[in-house]
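ESCALATION

Customer reports they have been waiting on this structure for their group meeting. Please prioritize. Original submission:
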Amino acid sequence: MAHKIFRKEDFRKDETGIYILEIPKGSAGIGADLIIERQTVDGEYEIVQADIHRHNDNILIKWSEPFDGRLLFDQ
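Update from on-call: job pushed to the front of the queue and completed.
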């Protein structure tokens, strides 16, 4: 599977206090299976069930706090 790395600095906080990460749809493909993994303290990755939406030309990932991680997808 292909992946895209993101950092906690890439998240923005919305007016409700939820953190949102926007990834261009073209970066992960259209209709691809998406998996979100959060990086742990020891550098490993764990799968999280983040809220994922597609809006316009972006994939929106919502979480209660920003985190370092990666987006896995089929190419």
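Sent to customer with the following note: The chain has a mean pLDDT of 89.
Escalation resolved.
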